[in-house]
């Protein structure tokens, strides 16, 4: 029989960096703020989370105050994740009541809500284009002299730069409060955050012909590898390869992935209609295909209200379908055998794929969206050029000045190796909002000058 991960370990309330376990009386939850609710609150009050309000989701933010930004998307995904997690948790607790007697269904919902809330916290400016721009700069000829000074594992972190890995770095290291290690979240939430529990340097030889979704990207940098080992051990993730840092997903990852997929597939369609790229007839028809025989008597004459109503009904339907798939495949998920997005195997998978295809063609490839992508390459590539040169070449006067602009670069950091100096740069640039990145780029390039005064 295949080895199964244990829910009692997967739901660990222990916190990274703490040796004691927070107490919680499950019998009187109204009198306690649970460990997982504390995780959620810590993320909400973090600086990195607040900056998501000025980071592109799909459409540029400067000309429309309705379309979603990263902050709104994260909040919406968190709401869907909480609902999905709670209804799944209710059944899981029934199935494993002997080992989960001190947990309640909402604990599952709170873990997933916190993980969803932070799932984009490491994304650089300009949406996913920001990740592509950083990767391409490190793959360019201009970066070769710097990369040659790093080992192959460190090079892979940069040439395959990932917002997921940057997000893990933020919540475990960068968002420090007092003497905490990062946000010092619970192991359960940290394990659920890791959508791609593998290092960047794993080659195709290690997982030949492996088609699992968890290897599509990497989830951490070499700098945080020891923390991942610690988390995986605490929650009992199954290791896939003895010679590399590669584990099976935490089962709750499938639920945050589903919440994320449901939100951005459906609301991008809604935003596409709102922006005029998708007609009402198209949006209505696509959403109705998800609802089967559902009662749609509330549709009226206001087209925008109709789409909002259909969007809410569609999200509810997809939540229920994802729940059933997760519960049907619970054993395979716990053994690591199941490794596909829930939304790819739900009954509405084909209808959802049609929505994705049309949204990609009519929305993601629109001129307005492409303009943001082009700007992202120019701005982030330019910033990397300046700051990486500054921290790697000590003899240039301009480099000395540019390095002084790095707010997270302290005097002691001069003693860091080049890899960790570069991570200081990517920390700073990834943490920028869209507008701040453009502002810094213009000032450094002399396109605009800072005003005098304080």
UniProtKB/TrEMBL annotation:
<dbReference type="InterPro" id="IPR023293">
    <property type="entry name" value="dGTP_triP_hydro_central_sf"/>
</dbReference>
<feature type="domain" description="HD/PDEase">
    <location>
        <begin position="66"/>
        <end position="274"/>
    </location>
</feature>
<dbReference type="InterPro" id="IPR003607">
    <property type="entry name" value="HD/PDEase_dom"/>
</dbReference>
<dbReference type="GO" id="GO:0008832">
    <property type="term" value="F:dGTPase activity"/>
</dbReference>
<dbReference type="Pfam" id="PF13286">
    <property type="entry name" value="HD_assoc"/>
</dbReference>
<dbReference type="GO" id="GO:0006203">
    <property type="term" value="P:dGTP catabolic process"/>
</dbReference>
<dbReference type="InterPro" id="IPR027432">
    <property type="entry name" value="dGTP_triphosphohydrolase_C"/>
</dbReference>
<dbReference type="InterPro" id="IPR050135">
    <property type="entry name" value="dGTPase-like"/>
</dbReference>
<dbReference type="InterPro" id="IPR006674">
    <property type="entry name" value="HD_domain"/>
</dbReference>
<dbReference type="InterPro" id="IPR026875">
    <property type="entry name" value="PHydrolase_assoc_dom"/>
</dbReference>
<keyword id="KW-0378">Hydrolase</keyword>
<dbReference type="Pfam" id="PF01966">
    <property type="entry name" value="HD"/>
</dbReference>
<dbReference type="InterPro" id="IPR006261">
    <property type="entry name" value="dGTPase"/>
</dbReference>
<protein>
    <submittedName>
        <fullName>Dehydrogenase</fullName>
    </submittedName>
</protein>
